[in-house]
User: Which sequence fits this backbone?
């Protein structure tokens, strides 16, 4: 009988997720929720992790028992820490996970207008806080056509109604408070295209983006090489994550001023791709890479917690 490497033992252990949650609590406390009032960010972090657990279980994202997808999500989210994260940032990330939960339920069902509607309601809610997320809607429609296989006139109309639904309440509130011009200025932000050459990344943003981009690329390469071992549905769902990984990275590169929001969206797809890689590889090289990744995440977490940010 082949002896399991530490990577495999950790990936399939039932104790790994509880210990990771404990680690997340420690990092959250070190970030200073008492001193900096970061309670909402802390609570949404663990709510989002539980939602990732549900998403992974409901759609069998990994073909063996493993909690690596939510574990990676929690590690990466804790690595970015909370001091530079606003409530609006975390709400956008939470909405995008909820989007996937509803969206995946519509798989191969062109009559699933209800699930598509609820999925795009989540995008609509996120756009109230970050209107530029609407730039990703055409990408989501392409995904619905090519991977979810649920595109029809009915689901297309449902997606538009879902996007508009939150604004029915926003318009009512703004009309009641005489703030309708603020709603117009909200959508005018879509025309404000920043110049990538004029934006200055902080060290923390640059390091975080490069690290998450590289491990996301690792997950993509692994998936493309080994996807034949997964069920067709799993391959299609991971196609969604690969597409969103690439689209979000391009979005960050072209519009870096939106990094604080987009990095939360990027972490979701990165967690799915890297979780798949860590749970389903068992070679000595990937075992070494697993330990290196843990060390790097711990170092970057400490770096983001205690080292001041500088502007490039």
Assistant:
């Amino acid at each position: 009988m082949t002896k399991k490497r530490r990577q495999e033992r950790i990936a399939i252990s039932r104790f790994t997720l509880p210990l990771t949650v404990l680690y997340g609590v420690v990092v959250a406390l070190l970030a200073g929720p008492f001193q900096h009032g970061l309670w909402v960010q802390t609570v949404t972090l663990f709510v989002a992790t539980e939602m990732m657990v549900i998403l992974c279980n409901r759609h069998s994202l990994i073909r063996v028992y493993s909690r690596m997808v939510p574990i990676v999500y929690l590690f990466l989210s804790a690595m970015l820490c909370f001091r530079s994260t606003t409530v609006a940032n975390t709400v956008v990330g939470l909405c995008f996970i909820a989007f996937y939960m509803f969206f995946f339920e519509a798989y191969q069902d062109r009559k699933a207008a209800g699930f598509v509607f609820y999925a795009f309601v989540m995008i609509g809610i996120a756009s109230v806080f970050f209107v530029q997320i609407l730039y990703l809607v055409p990408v989501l429609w392409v995904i619905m056509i090519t991977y979810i296989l649920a595109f029809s006139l009915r689901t297309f109309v449902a997606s538009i109604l879902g996007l508009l639904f939150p604004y029915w309440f926003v318009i009512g509130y703004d009309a009641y408070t005489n703030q309708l011009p603020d709603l117009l200025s909200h959508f005018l932000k879509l025309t404000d295209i920043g110049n990538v050459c004029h934006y200055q990344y902080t060290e923390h943003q640059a390091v975080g983006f490069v690290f998450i981009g590289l491990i996301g690329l690792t997950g993509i390469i692994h998936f493309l090489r080994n996807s034949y071992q997964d069920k067709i549905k799993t391959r299609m769902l991971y196609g969604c994550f690969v597409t969103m990984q690439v689209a979000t990275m391009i979005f960050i590169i072209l519009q870096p001023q939106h990094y604080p929001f987009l990095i939360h969206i990027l972490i979701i797809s990165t967690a799915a791709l890297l979780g798949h890689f860590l749970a389903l590889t068992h070679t000595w090289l990937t075992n070494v890479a697993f330990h290196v990744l843990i060390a790097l995440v711990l170092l970057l977490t400490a770096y983001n917690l205690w080292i001041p940010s500088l502007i490039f």
Observations:
- The CA atoms of residues 7 and 216 lie 18 Å apart.
- The chain has a mean pLDDT of 89.
- The radius of gyration is 20 Å.
